[in-house]
Amino acid sequence: GSYLSDIIVECISKSNKIILVISQNFLRSGWCKFEMNLARGELATRGRDCLILILKEPVELLPKELISPTLRSLLDTRVYLEWTEEEDRKLLFWRKLRDALGNPRFRGEEDTPFLYQNIDENEEMPQNLIE
């Protein structure tokens, strides 16, 4: 019964971290642009560690006409992670993402148990979490 835009605003404001997965489809989506602008506002309000940028493909492959001034500013001022299809680099990607996310905060019974499982440095993320 709520407006989608209101739900997005509320969810972003309640999130500890905001992850933007930048792809060509993301850049063509009006809703994703709306979410990116909200995330940029949260970044200005909350500080540097609330936003995580992931590039689904190298920035050089993104059509320049799709890169908005907001995204250009984020890419120029933020560290971002780049997804890779190379098997030997995927573990490094997941380790960097886990480091960027930091430790989860306990909020009570509504937290699900998988948030608190420790993943050994040499283990990969459980498959059901990354697919």
From TrEMBL:
GO molecular function, one term: signaling receptor activity
Subcellular location: Membrane
Domain (TIR) ranges: 1-101
Pfam families xref list: TIR
Domain of life of the native organism: Eukaryota
Any one of the GO BP annotations: signal transduction
Position of the signal peptide: none
Keywords recorded for this protein, A-Z: Membrane, Signal, Transmembrane, Transmembrane helix
Main location: membrane
Cited InterPro entries: TIR_dom, Toll_tir_struct_dom_sf
Family matches, as PROSITE patterns: TIR
GO CC terms, sorted: plasma membrane
Protein name in UniProt: TIR domain-containing protein
